[in-house]
Amino acid sequence: MIEVGLNHFLVVSTLLFSMGIYAIVTRKNAIMVLMGVELILNSANINFIAFTRFGNFGLQGHLIALFVIVLAAAEAAIALAIVLNIYKTLSTVNIDEVDSLKD
């Protein structure tokens, strides 16, 4: 039987973080960029919980992960409101075309 250790959590977290960075860098759709940010925040949560479990930090990692979840919910609500406003104004959510709002 395979025992799940800290390295397993770190590998999963690294994969999630890499996929999040890839989504942010390569996508032009604002919704996909927001999904990449959520992947990055979830990878941070995995690290917090893993280091709490294997490092004997008490409940500190769980509390920080809960704070990150609340932060992600607030970020998603505000970012989606901004994206909807951009879509209403420009009829697109393409990030490359948003710089026309400066004019």
Q: Describe it for me?
A:
α1 (6-26) packs antiparallel against α2 and α2 runs antiparallel to α3 (60-90). By secondary structure, this protein is mainly alpha-helical. Helices cover 76% and strands 0% of the residues. The protein has one domain: Helix Hairpins, CATH 1.10.287. It contains 3 helices and no strands.
Secondary-structure blueprint of this entry?
Blueprint: H1 6-26, H2 30-55, H3 60-90
Helix pairs in contact: 1-2, 2-3
Question: Into which percentage range does the β-strand content fall?
Answer: under 5%
**Which architecture per CATH?**
Orthogonal Bundle
CATH topology: Helix Hairpins
Summed up, the helix count is 3
Give the gist of this structure.
The chain is built from 3 helices and no strands. The chain has helices at 6-26, 30-55, 60-90.
Key descriptive features of the protein:
single chain; 103 residues; mainly alpha; Helix Hairpins; 76% helix; elongated
